[in-house]
Design goal:
There is one protein chain. The model is unreliable at 1-29 and 32-40 (pLDDT under 50). The radius of gyration is 19 Å and the shape is globular. The protein is an alpha/beta fold. α3 runs parallel beside α4 (77-92), α3 crosses α11 and α5 (127-148) runs parallel beside α6. It contains 12 helices and 12 strands. It has a 6-stranded parallel sheet, sandwiched between helices. It has a 3-stranded antiparallel sheet with strand order 7-8-9. It folds into 2 domains: 20-182, Rossmann fold (3-Layer(aba) Sandwich), CATH 3.40.50.720; 184-345, L-2-Hydroxyisocaproate Dehydrogenase, Chain A, domain 2 (Alpha-Beta Complex).
Length: 350
């Protein structure tokens, strides 16, 4: 078994979540009273109350992880959605407090901040064009974070994830391991879903690790795509697995083309909530996230998807795997393209 497979024994493993009572659907208070934490309660703020921000709040509430503050600059939006979420609590069985605010200053002292404020990509639009529109908003939020919650662990969901995650980290001038994006985790859950559907098995039994940019050039580590430890190639065959990988690679664009006026938001929200679990519960889960690398995987000065241990202080360590030659080449090419894109954006007039 190669290095990638050894690493994946921890990725997506259900026992990770069992460390936090209530996270697997049972009755309990989840991480709010987790005994292994220095601080019994984490304060989480979500900036942006659109589809992604609101659904993230809902998933966090259902996991009973911690209380949530929703912030949106549009008067009444966050307050209205938080009230709606709270009224669902008696039926959904959660008692998590969710409140809304129009005031960014209310995030002061937050332990975890999720950035979900930005417009979504249009059909056929290049991510670099989307960056030009979303960068000013994300930069302004990062400046507010530096003033109000400088010690927070920050999760970015706004696209393009890798480029904007780096922008947040640079604007904050923060420890690079305290800022992460959801890219790799989102792509991993997509291939898990597709493989489970193809085989008619529970997605909980499927593992898969995707590294590189959150972009069609992402690298699927085939040896890590397994069902209860059995390589998916044995169960599906090489050609069928290749088809599923391409379907997962194009999933974001497919959803965008079908929905037209909205991009995916349930899966990104679920990925963000999973990161909140890992941070709030200090599970030190091994998850693929976009984080700034400084020499890891031969990358320097870029945020890119890599496997990392995630706990209450953010990323605790990036796990460097020995990649197969084809995967190494694909990763290097994708990283080079990401570096070029960043260079073009940096050189463009503000």
């Amino acid at each position: 078994m190669g290095d990638c497979c050894v690493a994946l024994s921890a990725v997506n493993r259900r026992s990770r979540w069992n460390a936090c009572p209530g996270l697997t659907g049972g009755v309990g208070s989840g991480c709010i009273s987790h005994p292994g934490r220095d601080d019994p309660v984490k304060r989480i703020s979500i900036i942006g109350s659109g589809n992604v921000g609101t659904n993230t709040a809902f998933f966090v509430a259902e996991r009973r992880t911690t209380d949530v503050l929703l912030v949106d600059i549009k008067e009444g939006v966050a307050a209205g959605k938080s009230l709606d979420l709270m009224e669902a609590g008696p039926l959904r069985g959660y008692v998590t407090a969710i409140r809304g605010s129009v005031r960014i200053d209310d995030i002061a002292g937050s332990d975890i901040v999720i950035i979900a404020a930005g417009r979504v990509r249009k059909p056929g639009e290049q991510r670099e064009d989307l960056y030009r529109d979303n960068a000013p908003t994300v930069r302004a939020i990062a400046r507010d974070l530096r003033r109000l919650a400088p010690g927070a662990v920050v999760i970015n969901i706004v696209e393009p994830v890798d480029l904007l995650t780096l922008l947040v980290q640079e604007t904050l001038a923060a420890d690079r391991f305290k800022v992460m994006g959801v890219g790799g985790l989102l792509s991993s859950t997509r291939i898990r879903c597709l493989v489970s559907r193809a085989l008619g098995v529970s997605p909980r039994e499927v593992t898969g690790l995707i590294i590189g940019p959150h972009h069609p050039s992402m690298v699927f580590l085939r040896d890590t795509i397994r069902v209860s430890g059995i390589p998916a190639t044995i169960l599906l065959g090489e050609e069928r697995l290749r088809q599923l990988i391409e379907e997962a690679r194009d999933a974001g664009d497919t959803i965008l083309q079908l929905a037209q006026r909205s991009t995916s938001y349930y899966a990104p929200s679920a990925a963000a909530a999973a990161l909140v679990d890992a941070i709030a519960c200090n599970t030190r889960a091994l998850l693929p996230v976009s984080v700034r690398c400084e020499g890891e995987y031969g990358v320097k000065g870029l945020a890119i998807g890599v496997p990392a241990y995630v706990g209450e202080r953010g990323v605790t360590r990036i796990l460097e795997l020995k990649l197969a030659a084809t995967d190494r080449d694909a990763f290097d090419q994708a990283a080079a393209a990401l570096k070029t894109a960043r260079g073009h954006l940096a050189a463009a007039p503000a």
